[in-house]
Amino acid sequence: MELNLERPLLFFDIESTGLNIASDSIIELSFVKILPGNEQRIKTWKVCPWDYENNCQKHIAEQASDVNGVYDKDVADCPKFHEVIDEVTDWLKGSDLAGFNSAKFDLPLLAEEIERVRRYKHVDVDINLHEMKMVDVQNIYHMLEPRNLKAAYRFYCGGKDFDNAHTAEADTIATYEVLKGQLDMYPEKLKNDVNFLASFSGRAKTVDYAGRLIYNDAKEPVISFGKHKGKTAREVYRTEPSYFAWIEQGEFTLDTKRQFALLKEQFKKEADAAKKAPASEDQLAALKGKFNTKVEKTGSLF
């Protein structure tokens, strides 16, 4: 079954230096963009992983190289992520996203790389991944037939294996084929609609990819860990604004820091606007009541 699309759906996969989102980096990024009408476009970048703070190439962990077959020497002469950021964002713009286990790893790591470009290269990257719908094909798979990408491909694509597993491009194309197979196999459970698929496979209602901030039923950002767990970010900003500075200085992902910073900016603007706003009728009535009480007690205005 071909995909029913109103806008492009961008399948993507990442190979990286390791599995720590806050400290590891992209070494290979592959996009397979499916346009309405199911035209397919493919783009893959090999990237030199860069340590912006120490201005040097990051080492690819041996365990990662054992899986993806990429070693430090293989990417030493490749462009750095900030050098391809314009091309990457051009591919991202106007699309929704899809991947296999991408909501937990690939998407947060892509967001982290973008934040590094913003922070260390001072580039205003014109993309907001949080605004894009995300279809996680692995989540659909686990919900409907709880297993990895190889098994999913074998199950949904006629019992065959695919070549070059653990290369970003092969994994990305396989993920696209698996989603089409899922739609064919479960027509009564799945809708051929990106809004439905993103909701069905979506991650929890988190503000940041690490899940340090989550939305409550009122769609208010709430702290999900530590001493303020369960409190709204707005309440914490009002009672302990220094907490936001602690987040900025702590060992959190750059995406988490950015989402806290955006909330801080929002809350500060709201507070400044409230100070400038004329008093409401209720506020004036309260002041009048307080004034009258004072006069009654003292019998004097002075």
What does it look like?
With 302 residues, the protein is α/β, with parallel strands linked by helices. 46% of the residues lie in helices and 14% in strands. The chain has helices spanning 62-68, 72-75, 81-92, 102-120, 137-144, 149-156, 168-185, 194-201, 233-239, 242-249, 254-276, 281-298; strands at 9-16, 26-34, 40-46, 50-51, 56-57, 96-99, 134-136, 213-215, 221-223. The strands form 3 sheets. It has a 5-stranded mixed sheet with strand order 3-2-1-6-7, sandwiched between helices. Helix 6 (149-156) crosses helix 7 (168-185). The longest helix is centred in the last third of the chain and has 23 residues, at 254-276. It is globular. 33% of the residues are buried. The model has no long low-confidence stretch (mean pLDDT 91).
Query: Distance between termini?
Result: 83 Å
Q: Which stretches are low in confidence, meaning pLDDT under 50 for 5 or more residues running?
A: none
Beta-strand percentage range: 5-15%
Report the mean per-residue pLDDT as an integer.
91
Short précis:
With 302 residues, the protein is an alpha/beta fold.
Please render the helix and strand layout as text.
Elements (H helix, E strand, L loop, with lengths): L8 E8 L9 E9 L5 E7 L3 E2 L4 E2 L4 H7 L3 H4 L5 H12 L3 E4 L2 H19 L13 E3 H8 L4 H8 L11 H18 L8 H8 L11 E3 L5 E3 L9 H7 L2 H8 L4 H23 L4 H18 L4
Parallel strand pairs: 1-6, 6-7
Antiparallel strand pairs: 1-2, 2-3, 4-5, 8-9
Features of the shown structure:
alpha/beta; five-stranded mixed beta sheet; 9 strands; 14% strand; globular
